[in-house]
Amino acid sequence: MTQPTAIPELGRRHANVARLRFLDGMTYASAIGGALLMLALLLMLLAVIAHGAMPAYQRFGFSFITSTDWNPHPPHADDMPTPPQVFGARTAIMGTLLTSLIALLISFPVSLGSAIFLTKLAPKLRIMIPTRNTPGGKRFKSISLRHGVTVASFMIELLAAIPSIAYGLWGVAVLVPFMQKTQPAIAHSIGTLPFIGQCFQNYGYGTNIFTAGIILSIMVTPIITAIIRDVLAVAPPELEQGALGLGATWWQATRLVLGFSKMGILGAVILGFARAIGETMAVTMVIGNSIDSDNSLFASGQSIASLLAVQFRNADTEGEIQALIYAAFMLLVITTLINGIARVLIVRVAAKGGKR
Amino acid sequence: MSALPVSNLPTAPADTFTRSRGLHNATARIMNNIIVVACYASALFTILALLLIFGYIAFRGISSIDLAFFTELPPHGMRNCIAGSLVLIALASCLGVPLGMLCGIYLAEYAGDTWFSHAIRLVVDVLAGVPSILVGVLAYELVVVPMAGGTAWAGAVALGFMMCPIIARTTEEMLKLVPHALREASIGLGASKFQTLFRIVIPAGASGIITGIMLAVARVAGETAPLLFTVMGSDQKVFSIDSTFPYFHADLNHQFPSLTVKIYQYAISPSADGIRQMWAALFILILLVLILNICVRIASNRGALKGH
After folding, report:
1. pLDDT, tens digit, for every residue of B171-212?
2. Helix or strand or coil: residue A302?
3. Which of B38, B57, B168 sits opposite A113 (nearest CB)?
4. DSSP element (H, E) containing A86
5. Shortest Cα–Cα distance, A81 to chain B (Å)
6. CA within 20 to 30 Å of B72's CA: A41, A262, A319, B57, which one?
């Protein structure tokens, strides 16, 4: 750390130096305080939610994960005592995982393609414009599409900036009616196949796990694309150049680059997954928010985040709030772990490629 | 660019790119073309998705916007919700901007290549990835439960927490862009670290820090999930004069109007006029977010901000 160089001790400056030393110390202290505060914030998040979840954990333990009953007001006859509340989040946990997996299955190839386009293909794009008055037989002028590529890259980033609720409402207005029309056809064709057919049965109103997965895939694509783009950009160009020099096709050369950055790409996918499992509003709008479990992608479901969004305000009993916070705690632990792993992977790859 | 450690590069088997497998191989060429087309298609698909979504919302929004939307209270307009959202964002900035900037200053100016600074960077990244609804649950436990009901404060705390990591990272990146020679010159002239930081480095990086703040505002402006059970929405005026305080003021101790919460409430309501206003509000919101993002992009001409 750089210390201020000793200022010549010229009588009148004495007090000034002491003041500056004090201010230096204060600046350092508050800066490191700000850094520690971030750590404190994360720990507080974990501690507060864990504390809120504790009563529900003690009551339900692991049956919370395996049970599908969500019953804050169990039915009972008037002359009988109120039975205990039952809470199980299996439907929500399954919904969270299924929607995120569908989202990744769709968005990973698209993101990888877009990222390769942005880093490897687009910078080389040229338009040949015919020019008349060139001496010496050169009739074409090559114009780089560099700025067009910057715009394309920016537009993909804008896709990440659109608020979650906008995706949700677009989904309700456009995607859900579309799904409603196409579902019967899919259910009658693929749905009749053995084994996998079951996943496409019991179609309903278009608000279902599959629709939520599609919305999520549109939402995480720009995030994964941006990270893969950055990861590919730091891969050493020698790899590609060497391969091309040896007579490889463009794709064979690019595959080497992909191989070099594969851990970073994995990190990007994991980060996209973390984003998908925590996404709330868009999923809430299109997943149908049904607490009943149904083993079909075309049936209404629930994710942990949508469960929180819908039930938290309506919860009128202490027990239900505790159960909801227990579900929130699971989501928090999963996203924190996943985010940490993904970031470490991405940082490692950036260090391996050499930052520039 | 530094010299690359050759040993880190993966080595291909000796026969990887011989004539039989490279440009002269028909299968390799066809594969090459398929992949190129697929890459073009996926980029096109992604951009098309943006245009489709934005186009649809703009179409529905423009056709349903009117003057009453800006001047009336619910159920005829959303005047109070727009004001409420602005108040919430301002309050959140009061919390998030200074805290985020302090952490960013630490990461850019004081943190070396130590395990501690790497840990803090990891923590900031993890915080940035925490689902917004969980920040809402935190604000619920910290503010709503003690204050026994939804308040503007709770929403501001939730949004402020969300701004912290974003501002910390952009501040760090922006301060790192300030040339090192400036710091050396300042220290060489006898300035202290404090003077260097506040008179030289931060003014030089100010435009970048401001774009970072805009980015964070754009991010929290559209947040709905953490507000659902913290501010809880309201149809009352934001600014009023009442018996408790005889001046023009906003009541922050009760349920508070917010644009995004109102959008959600209208979205799940059966009212046709509500749905119309919802599209108008969504259009205003998206326009705000997009304009902020485009401003950030224009301001950060060095492309250091990546939008996440």
Report:
1. 998 888 888 888 899 888 888 888 888 888 888 888 888 888
2. coil
3. B38
4. strand A86-87
5. 30
6. B57
Q: Residue A200 is which amino acid?
A: F
Kindly tell me the sign of the dihedral angle through the C-alpha atoms of A172, A173, A178, A184: positive
Determine which helix (DSSP H) or strand (DSSP E) holds B241, and give its type and residue range. strand B239-242
User: Which of A34, A117, A173 lies nearest to residue B102, judging by beta carbons?
Assistant: A34
CB pairs under 8 A between A and B: 330
In chain B, the number of structural domains is 2
**Amino acid occupying residue A136:** G
Contact B104, B171 (CB under 8 A): yes
- Residue pair A290/A301 in contact by the 8 Å Cβ criterion: yes
> Residue B106 is which amino acid?
Y
> d(Cα B134, Cα A291) in Å, to the nearest integer?
20
> Over chain B, what is the mean pLDDT?
82
Dihedral pair phi/psi, residue A248, rounded to 5°: -75, 155
My answer on whether B50 and B192 are in the same domain is no
pLDDT digits (tens, 9 = 90+) for B91-126: 999 999 999 999 999 998 888 788 888 899 999 999
Strands A140-144, A126-130: pairing is antiparallel
A152–chain B nearest CA distance, Å: 7
Average pLDDT over residues B126-149: 88
> At which residue do the structure tokens 């003021």 appear?
B249
Contact B305, B173 (CB under 8 A): yes
- Chosen from B20, B103, B294, B295 to mutate, greatest number of chain A CBs within 10 A: B103
Q: Are residues B51 and B193 in the same domain?
A: no
Distances (CA, A) of A245 to A237, A242, B18: 12, 5, 11
Q: Is B20 helix (H, G, I), strand (E, B) or coil?
A: coil
Q: Cβ distance A69 to B163 under 8 Å?
A: no
Residue in A35, A109, A277 closest to B103 by CB: A35
Mean pLDDT of the A128-134 span = 66
CA atoms of A281 and B290, how far apart (whole Å): 19
B133, B52: one domain: no
**Residue A304: is its pLDDT beyond 90?**
no
DSSP letter assigned to residue A205: S
Task: Please report, in angstroms and rounded to a whole number, the separation of the first and last CA atoms in chain B.
Answer: 26
CB-CB contact of A275 with A254 (8 Å): no
Q: Does B72 score more than 70 pLDDT?
A: yes
**Between vectors from CA B300 to CA B40 and to CA A267, what angle results, nearest 5°?**
50
Q: Which residues in A lie closer than 8 A to residue B105 (C-beta atoms)? A: 27, 31, 34
Q: Which amino acid, B11?
A: T
A129, containing H or E segment = strand A126-130
> Bridge partners of B232?
B256
Q: What is the CATH number of the domain that holds B76?
A: 1.10.3720.10
Per-residue tokens: B62: 């423009």
**Residue B48 placed within a domain:** yes
Nearest to A220 by CA among A182, A138, A276: A276
For B194, name the nearest residue in chain A, comparing CA atoms only.
Answer: A24
Closest CA to B160 of B107, B113, B213: B213
Residues B27 and B88 in one domain: no
Q: How far is B300 from chain A (nearest CA, A)?
A: 12
Query: A134 is written with which tokens?
Result: 């060139």
| Run of H or E residues at B250 | strand B245-250
Range of the domain at B203: 70-299
The partner residue sitting opposite A169, judged by closest CB among B23, B161, B282, is B282
